[in-house]
Write a structure and sequence with these properties.
2 helices
């Protein structure tokens, strides 16, 4: 009887221990939400758009940091862009003095603007370009729309908490520093209409041996 009572007690204690462990807070995620809309007229009044030129070919993977300073982009690639793909990388930043404290926190796609969806604008002045947004692990794909060659589009990245340089957690970037990328890395490529036959073989993400880094200004 004593043995049975002991086993029961240990089982109860074990279950309680598991319950306490399950109540331990999970490590917080930084949520990242990319948005692709028609041009932002307010931003256009304050600065010239950045240009995506013909050096950026369909299927070519580029990597840059978000989030940062807002800007419009001119599609001057020579192609009509039919989809955009973003691969979210791990945050590489530690700051024990920030509030909250950061130590290379994990990142994931999430609804930052509070509209119940990921990847769509909640600003009535900005029209979403792509109808279909799919997420698989760290990869988000915008499709079901077109960014014609020669047109402007707006592609900010929102984060929660705000990790834009100068927003309180990440120190501001010196004015003289040309590269103002944020701390979260994103790798990206686009597909085009009609698809160029010489790039069909490189449309699988990561197929290129060298990823070019773009100095882009994005805003949350």
């Amino acid at each position: 009887m004593t043995t049975i009572a002991t086993k029961i007690a240990l089982s109860v204690l074990g279950a309680a221990g598991i319950s306490f462990l399950s109540l331990t807070p999970a490590r917080a995620f930084i949520l990242v939400e990319p948005i692709v809309t028609t041009q932002n007229e307010d931003v256009l009044e304050t600065k010239n758009p950045r240009t995506l030129g013909p050096e950026f070919q369909p299927g070519q993977v580029i990597e840059y940091g978000v989030s940062d300073v807002a800007n419009n982009f001119l599609n001057d690639t020579g192609y009509d862009i039919e989809s955009l793909v973003f691969d979210l990388k791990t945050l590489s930043y530690s700051n024990p003095d920030s509030t909250p404290v950061f130590n290379n926190e994990p990142v994931q796609w999430g609804d930052v603007n509070g509209d119940g969806k990921i990847g769509y604008s909640n600003n009535p002045d900005l029209k979403d370009i792509f109808r279909d947004i799919t997420i698989k692990d760290n990869i988000i794909t915008f499709s079901g729309g077109v960014i014609p060659n020669g047109t402007l589009f707006y592609n900010p990245f929102a984060t929660n908490p705000n990790v834009s340089p100068g927003a309180g957690i990440i120190p501001p970037v010196p004015a003289e520093q040309e590269d103002k990328d944020g701390p979260i890395r994103v790798a990206s490529y686009y597909t085009a209409v009609p698809e160029s036959t010489n790039v069909l073989g490189v449309l699988v993400f990561g197929a290129l041996g060298v990823a070019l880094k773009v100095k882009r200004s994005l805003h949350c």
